[in-house]
Amino acid sequence: MVLETLLVQTALKTIGIVGSTLWLIPLVLAGLSFINYNKYDPESQVMNAQNLYREYDFIIVGGGSAGAVVAARLSEISKWKVLLLEAGFDENEVSDVPSLAAYLQLSKMDWEYKTEYTGRACLGMRNGQCNWPRGKVLGGSSVLNYMLYVRGNKHDYELWEQMGNPGWNYENVLHYFKKSEDNRNPYLVKTPYHGKDGPLTVQESPWRTPLVVAFLEAGLEMGYPIRDINGADQAGFMIAQGTIRRGARCSTAKAFLRPVKLRKNIHVALNSHVTKVLINPANMRAFGVEFVRNGRKQIVTARKEIILSAGAINTPQILMLSGIGPKYELQKHGLPVLRDLPVGENLQDHVGMGGLTFRINKPVSIVQDRLQAFPMTMQYVVHERGPMTTLGGVEGLGFVNTYLGNRSWPDIQFHMAPASINSDAGAKVRKVLGITDELYNTVYKPIANKDVYTLMPLLLRPKSRGWVRLRNKSPFSPPLINANYFDDPFDIKTLVEGAKIAINISETHAFKKFGSRLHSIPFPNCRQFEFTSDEYWECHIRTISMTIYHPVGTCKMGPSWDHQAVVDPRLRVYGVGGLRVIDASIMPTIPSGNTNAPTIMVGEKGADLVKEDWLGGAYE
């Protein structure tokens, strides 16, 4: 056991988790478990190529939710040489445990970004800034996220095509959702909306509390059916599905890259921080990338294309450092202006109302002090079940419409979890969110380790738009991120209505059976408002403004006449040859749901667009 303990302690230190809490004890026991039961096989890790070629056919920057997909799919063409550059390292046995999602944030696997202070949101966080976790690891944010598999609404994609992007309608993108999917829920695979032969495993957590059943029953009481929210219609309630396999996280690295690691035509270079794309100003063609690896600057060139898949924050940063972006922004930092494009604009994110907590009388929720290390670990190891398989704590999803929306295109999503900010007695969740001591100690400390559940209303289609800009010309400085939450007053108005619906859900007969009641200690900064009034809820929302880690849109896809567009509908950067963007930054509007599955879809479709452009129909 000493050896296994050291293995896990090393893994914890590698990703930057230090210290020890009761909840990490099962992880020490799990070191042996992962090896003995083949949940995590170190031999299956992707090979980190040390000796690179000088030239490849394709260079992909970023091995995250989209980049891993693109690299694997392009390597299917055996005559193409593919290089994938990733700034982080490989995932490990710690990141494989679904319940430890929160522990990965603010670790070395996280870029640890923060939003700029606006005074309109994140007021209960330190310095009025929200933490914005982004994956700095092979698999990207699919390694840090809560694994929820949600595709969005069919109207989202019809809108994309109506905006001048042919080939991005719902029927077309559905093909790519299904292409990736290995759905292991028999009742869903039988429908025309799901796939079972793809590399990405999707299923429910094998463990759940009675509260998620109450959540489904509450939805029925309110007139919403229990349905597949990724199917024909979205409005309704469902037990959450996630990207997990045999109780462990199924990231895009695990799904797409590990199975192809023996291919001779793909190299993966980890710890490779790309600093710029090299562009020939004479013909405006991208021909290579500059990156720093182990403290040494290197250059690699591409015969065909360079593909940026670094995500909605890092992709615009790299483009601007390369001389592609708003003229005024580049000139401000003394960078050459090779192409004046609105890079970094159009930033969108799903903002939610965090901290809405409901007390219950029965011992059925996730309470850290009640979790017993040994039996919980044995459940996970031997039976691939138990609390350690939970999707970061989220058990139920609901899509509803306020009076401001409509039934066919819901405007509020609910994340239901059998826990809240108080459930770990302040050990981790408050730190991940960056909540101030005053707020935590006043509102949540009095109910530490008490049985609770939370309903988080999430704004599905925000009207507000933010931006990403350079802090300076150093590629190692974090960019400036202005989420610009609630710039449009319609957004806060919609979320207030979502809060009221959450209260109605909590008051259904299904939840009253557990003694459900609203935790009623008011926020210190909101005491001037009557508790539960619209004004109070607005103050609450502005205090704990929860990002759901869904930034998109900063390299907008659009037709040539769209002056806000950075890439065309085939994802090629306007005015620059040999350069394409394939990640969440190309989304013109944010999908109505969690964005990991849509980002993987963009990776699948983007890879096919590359194949079509270079091979025609020959690759099929």
Automatic annotation (TrEMBL):
<keyword id="KW-0274">FAD</keyword>
<dbReference type="InterPro" id="IPR007867">
    <property type="entry name" value="GMC_OxRtase_C"/>
</dbReference>
<feature type="transmembrane region" description="Helical">
    <location>
        <begin position="15"/>
        <end position="35"/>
    </location>
</feature>
<feature type="domain" description="Glucose-methanol-choline oxidoreductase N-terminal">
    <location>
        <begin position="135"/>
        <end position="158"/>
    </location>
</feature>
<dbReference type="GO" id="GO:0050660">
    <property type="term" value="F:flavin adenine dinucleotide binding"/>
</dbReference>
<keyword id="KW-0472">Membrane</keyword>
<keyword id="KW-0285">Flavoprotein</keyword>
<dbReference type="Pfam" id="PF05199">
    <property type="entry name" value="GMC_oxred_C"/>
</dbReference>
<dbReference type="Pfam" id="PF00732">
    <property type="entry name" value="GMC_oxred_N"/>
</dbReference>
<feature type="binding site">
    <location>
        <position position="137"/>
    </location>
    <ligand>
        <name>FAD</name>
    </ligand>
</feature>
<feature type="binding site">
    <location>
        <position position="274"/>
    </location>
    <ligand>
        <name>FAD</name>
    </ligand>
</feature>
<dbReference type="InterPro" id="IPR036188">
    <property type="entry name" value="FAD/NAD-bd_sf"/>
</dbReference>
<feature type="domain" description="Glucose-methanol-choline oxidoreductase N-terminal">
    <location>
        <begin position="311"/>
        <end position="325"/>
    </location>
</feature>
<keyword id="KW-1133">Transmembrane helix</keyword>
<protein>
    <recommendedName>
        <fullName>Glucose-methanol-choline oxidoreductase N-terminal domain-containing protein</fullName>
    </recommendedName>
</protein>
<keyword id="KW-0812">Transmembrane</keyword>
<dbReference type="InterPro" id="IPR012132">
    <property type="entry name" value="GMC_OxRdtase"/>
</dbReference>
<dbReference type="GO" id="GO:0016614">
    <property type="term" value="F:oxidoreductase activity, acting on CH-OH group of donors"/>
</dbReference>
<comment type="similarity">
    <text>Belongs to the GMC oxidoreductase family.</text>
</comment>
<dbReference type="InterPro" id="IPR000172">
    <property type="entry name" value="GMC_OxRdtase_N"/>
</dbReference>
<feature type="transmembrane region" description="Helical">
    <location>
        <begin position="56"/>
        <end position="74"/>
    </location>
</feature>
